[in-house]
Amino acid sequence: MQKQKIAFEYSVFESILELDKVHRELMLLADAARKNAYAPYSNFQVGAAVLLENGKVVIGNNQENACYPSGLCAERVAIFQAGAVYPNQIIKAIAISASSSKQSLKMPAAPCGNCRQSIAEYELKQVQPITILMSGAEGNVFKCDSISDLLPLAFDSTYLI
Ligand code: THU
Hints:
There is one protein chain. The longest helix is centred in the N-terminal third of the chain and has 14 residues, at 21-34. The protein starts with 10 loop residues before the first strand and ends in an 11-residue tail after the last helix. α2 (74-85) runs parallel beside α3. A hairpin with a 5-residue loop joins β5 (131-135) and β6. It contains four helices and six strands. The protein has one domain: Cytidine Deaminase, domain 2. A six-stranded mixed sheet has the order 1-6-5-4-2-3. It has helices at 21-34, 74-85, 113-126, 147-150, and strands spanning 11-13, 44-52, 57-61, 91-100, 131-135, 141-144. Helix content is 27%, strand content 22%. The protein is of the alpha+beta class. Residues 39, 42, 44, 46, 62, 64, 71, 73-75, 111-112, 115 line the site of tetrahydrodeoxyuridine.
């Protein structure tokens, strides 16, 4: 028997102001998208902005439903829309911005497991890493260089061949 260890590094920025221009502008678009979230049940608003290689940005926000499981997270609304409209574009980065009407969210919210799995699908398809930026309504911003850091030992299409 052997023990294996998986470790990863991520960057912590003090605020959105410390990000480079491209990532700061992407996060500002995620912030703007968050303000249009439809989250009457959780009161937790999330916005996402997907940056493509052609420079276009596709946004999404969480869309809730009275039948709770029928709703969808911001990240998947955005990345599925990017896949639908620009199927052959490389995805460079996704910025995720979260807030809560019930508490002041001063730290980033990380994508849920289903969103990690969905982002991982596109990263594998394009064979290029996707940068993940995460922010709360204020405070620190986290940056991961690949979704594989957030989803080690992922299930993917290689199992289905
Ligand atoms: N939510 C997202 O949009 N993204 C995540 O990664 C985590 C959770 C949404 C789903 C739901 O509308 C609300 O936040 C509370 O879970």
